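Format notes (please read before filing issues)

Several people have asked whether sequences and structure tokens are stored in separate files. They are not. Every record keeps both together, in the order shown below: the sequence lines, then the token lines. Line labels are part of the format and must not be stripped during preprocessing.
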Amino acid sequence: MTAARLGVGRPAGAHWPQPTGGTELAATTTTSAIHEVAARAGERSAEIEQLRHLPPDLVGELVTAGAFRLAVPAAYGGAGASAAEVLDAIETVAYHDGATGWCVMIANTTALGSALLPADHAAATYGPADSITGGFALPVGTAVLQPDGSLRATGRWSWGSGTGHCTAIGGGVRIVDADGEPAALPDGSRTVFAYFDPADVHLLDTWHVAGLKGTASTDYQVADAVVPTGRWVDFAADRPPAIDEPLYRLPFLGVLATGVASVLLGLGRRAVDELVALGEKHPSQSSKGLAERAVVQAQLAEADASVRSGHAFLRDALAGCWATAGARAPMGDEDKRLLRLAATTAAERSAHAVDLCYHAGGGTSVYETSPLQRVFRDAHVATQHAMVAPRTLEVLGRMTFGLPTDTRSL
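Then the structure lines:
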């Protein structure tokens, strides 16, 4: 079923409600422009997969629409959007094309660093209208503090989504001394997300995968890259952001998890709409159309409920955290637990919905021309992200039991 037949260009399929993230951003041209670019991305999904990266002209359209800078503060020319508005945009773009939605997600979650950087670095990195950041935040690289206050970083990271079109690329590093032993920065930080110049980053051709092919989530590495003093952020630090607004008080890993979950919610919604569009199909040796078969009706209802319930839980948990952040109160462990539980649940329920629709589509689903096939592959790559993997439930279950738990991973 083609995107055009689904009425692509709207922020959701025919029977889905409009995004409800907020009113201010929804009234601007930013939201409308993102919807329009998302629809065009959907029409180019096959091209995006073949290229294994977003086409440069599409990146330019996303830049013009402001899709990569929703989470950048207004002080640096960004949209200064709410968390719900950012997730609405991610979900909408992913509905039309999973890879494009994923790149929008990565750009906006790494952009949370814009409110944590010193003002001079934030303005230089995020001030330009065409700025896009990406990278892998977990500290798998190392960095040595130099006498002049800079860092020298070395490392190799995976999941470098969209790094080929980024104007700055980050990587998580552990602070070590000259002998490689654990060390700390003067402010006590032991791990930071360092921003590298793209010229210092070597992109490796490792992204040969089943789904989300167009994200170009390749491995990348740096060797003795110089990071100027202060051009890094500590996402784990328990200190107020330089720009003290609610979005930047939310737990970074929790927001990242909700972003990944929102990609999957978009894919789940698309799968439901694709199955509805197949309703007139007559399976082989059957006198009934697909929509008239009781088993398919039940599968569609279950898929619909799965996506909607995952979405509702995620937004409910996010609303609780947003209220805490808005009151400038400390983010409690229960807020963090519910946010991560909701993100993992939304991801799992969305993937389940995709599976139901893929199987209900029958033989049509296996063809490369079928959006259900692409959505199925994209969803089952997205579920492998550590932020929404099933093992995240272990620490959340410990907390529910009231057992002593290390909550630093939340």
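For reference, the curators noted about this record: The mean pLDDT is 92. The chain has three domains: 4-115, 133-233, 250-401.
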